[in-house]
Amino acid sequence: MQNGISAVCGAIAGVAIVxxxxxxxxxxxLRTFFSVTLGWSVAFIEMYLLTVVAxxxxxxxxxxxxxxxxxxxxxxxxxxxxxxxxxxxxLVLLIGMGALLAAGTEGxxxxxxxxxxxxxxxxxxxxxxxxxxxxxxxxxxxGMIVVLIDLVRELIAPWHVTATDYDPGDxxxxxxxxxHAGTDTAEGAR
Length: 190
Fold this sequence. Notes:
Layout: H1 2-34, H2 41-64, H3 71-74, H4 79-113, H5 129-133, H6 135-156, H7 186-189
């Protein structure tokens, strides 16, 4: 389930990146050779596509371990301490994502309530404002599901193993402390 959510979020962010490149290229070509501009592309890129890249990309970055991780210190700690730190990290992530979800939902409901959108006749595309406002809560719900699965997995796994099942980046070439059971991960416990 986590990999599926991450793949969907990654695909959404990837499509947004390609759209940014294409729109920028088309706009440059139109300006250079025809002295015209799309007009709406800059606002669309800034308000929609970059927001999609940032927040849906966040979910994929978390799941794939592409975030910043200080593994040199983490892997020098005992298994139980690593497990405690992972649980605390998941709780902090859930609190942060929950705060973003609450703020995003408030903005979404406000945009719906006032029928937010571009002024007719402006250069922007006539997309209702709630569409942009829905990006943040949608991505945070998906992100919280992914983090919550990791948290539950850690909490129900034995305390002599860490259950996180992805590599948070390159690990240094140091011996990993093992528990009295001789396992270090959920994979090793099987």
